[in-house]
Amino acid sequence: MEPVSDFWAATRVISQALDGLDHAALSAMPDTEKVQAMTCLRTLARRLDTSARVVTDAVAKSCATERATGLALSDFLAKEEGRSSSQGIGEVHRASAITANGTVRDAALAGTITPDHAVAIGQQLRQLPLDEMSADEKNAAAGKFIDAARTTAPGQLSRRTASVLEAAAPRLAPSAADRAARAAALRRQAEAERKLCWGSDDHGSIWFSGKVPELEGRTIIGALQAFAEKGRQAERAELDALKVQRNRGIITTARYLTLRKEVDARGARTTAQRMADALVDATHLLASTDLIPSAGGQPPRIVVTIGYEDMRKSLQGLIDAGTFEGEVPVDAGTLRRMCCDAEILPIVLGSDSQIMDVGRSERLVTSAIRRALEHRDGGCIYEGCTVPAALCQAHHVLPWWAGGRTQLSNLVLVCRHHHAIVEPGRYRDRDQPRVVFDSDTGRPRVVEPDRSRVYRASAQHDNRVGNPDPGENSALLTGRAKPRTDDPDHQESSAQPTAGAQLRTDDPDHQESSAQPTRPGDPDPRESSAHLSPLPSPPRPPDSLDRRSEDADQRQEALV
Fold first, then answer.
1. Where are the beta strands (DSSP E) in 222-261?
2. CA 303, CA 390: separation in Å to the nearest integer?
3. Residue 535 pLDDT exceeds 50
4. Using CA atoms, how far apart are residues 117 and 105, in angstroms rounded to an integer?
């Protein structure tokens, strides 16, 4: 589509098209078309959001609001959109980050990445030595970040900065000595800036504010998350107990509903509220012991990852530097001091980063196996999930009831939510996401269900044969345009839902559209079944089996 020189004409078309959407018609759509419509509109929303931020940055750079309204842009946004002044400043900074690199900006405008990813990439690009990088190296770094954004949450892209620089401009990548020196400098700065402040808000609450070095902060966060998760588990256990009492006739249905409402009310806490409660619970627990004001107590547990050859060299002297859980670098001095009082769990790696030894194997998931899982998976393995390893559960890929063994090659970490999604059903087959292990690296990944691949193939097929010409404004408003097969850009247009579209299995183009992976190293979904071992079929239970009992069994199995 040719760029529209008349900005107002383009915005009128968009506004009129939105006015013409019939949301009431959604109820009559087939499920596939509903999903397509949702995906299409969410992509358009991201593109519009990016366009708005690009224009915002143009306004900021030209000082247009100062000349037109007499207000700084941040103040103008705060006034017009009901934001605080700090929020207005944040909007200006985020808009500037999106436009920091032309490749990143264009990817966000095209909907390839989200605006939040574009902001995060722009911020990380500014951390690179751009003055010393060539134009090709800058574009290569931007491309690496864009590729990483497809499988990484915006807040986690900062972990890729070092590897991106090493791949895009290896000549500028810091040496091991430089990294150790930087880790030590950052540690000294963090220690100098540590603080904890509190005071009364005169409304019955105490406020806290402060910061601590990252290693100590992660320890605090991990402890509070454990208390918060314990509260969630207690609420679930209480609900399950109420269900059992109702099913056995111990309490009436009316009493069950009343008690469940009370439990649901306690469970309606936000994450921030749960973390505040966790801080209070941890303090009460500490106060009930004899540890206050003792400086001892349970020592921290430290996991330091070091290669086998590095370990051999380090045995001849002091440890130079290491990496804590969460990819946090640590300088040698801090490491030695913390090791004096710590429970050290060595995880020895070979040259190919495969785990060589984590201790004696036992029947159940031992602490050694658990630590190895946390090291290998880093958290929930479900693509896009950011739940940390400490809050994940160990899942048997081949279930225990089906003969699966408790060993690293049959275990993965998944969060509670995704555990229920990938857990195989015992008595009925489901088309569901499945866990497989890569035959080359041995690392686990999740392959999507067959129906998901069929949907994507159908959406791509519809995209080729049924999309209207985006250059015809009347077609955008009426939806009656015919497909143009001579348009070379037609196949690259964004997905648009088409009424009545069906998947044709005899279409030769369908075989091409079903191949979803577009990035090097991605699995071919059509070959994923080759990595799976068929599960044995256990005897089917009698027809009189209560479904509620079966569901309870499956929930219990998800905890194994």
1. none
2. 13
3. no
4. 10
**Cα 209 to Cα 211: distance, rounded to the nearest angstrom:** 7
- Among residues 300, 304, 303, 301, the alpha carbon closest in space to that of 314 is found at 304
Which class for 355: exposed (0-12), middle (13-18), buried (19 or more C-beta within 10 A)? middle
- Residue 262 structure tokens: 């009370």
Cα dist from 61 to 102, 462, 489, whole Å: 16, 42, 33
How far is it, in rounded angstroms, from Cα 553 to Cα 428? 13
Distance CA 263, CA 240 (A): 11
Nearest to 126 by CA among 86, 148, 159, 96: 96
Q: Please state, in angstroms and rounded to a whole number, the distance separating the CA atoms of residues 105 and 211.
A: 33
Give the DSSP letter of residue 128: S
How many angstroms separate the CA atoms of 96 and 123, rounded?
9
Beta-carbon count within 10 A of 81 CB: 10
Cβ(68)–Cβ(58) below 8 Å: no
* 436 phi/psi in degrees, rounded to 5: -130, 160
Task: Among 27-41, 262-276, 317-331, name the one with the lowest average pLDDT.
Answer: 317-331
How do 347-349 and 305-307 pair as beta strands?
A: parallel
Bridge partner residues of 435 (DSSP): 446
Angle at CA 447, nearest 5°, toward 445 and 452?
A: 150
Q: Which of 147, 180, 518 is nearest to 320 (CA)?
A: 180
Q: Which two tokens stand for residue 91?
A: 């909007």
Q: In the predicted model, what is the mean pLDDT of residues 207-234?
A: 90
Cα–Cα distance, 428 to 417 (Å, whole number): 20
Separation CA 293–CA 413 (nearest Å): 37
SS3 447: strand
Residue-wise DSSP of 67-83: HHHSS-HHHHHHHHHT-
Residue 379 has what DSSP assignment? B
Q: Is the pTM of this model over 0.70?
A: no
Give the pLDDT of residue 413: 93
Report, in this order, helix, strand and coil percent for the chain, each rounded to 5: 55, 10, 35
Number of residues assigned to the chain: 560
| pLDDT at 2 > cutoff 60 | no
Structure tokens at 210: 């402060």
Strand partners, 199: 207
CA angle, residues 429, 431, 36, in degrees to nearest 5: 155
In contact, 396 and 408? CB cutoff 8 Å = no
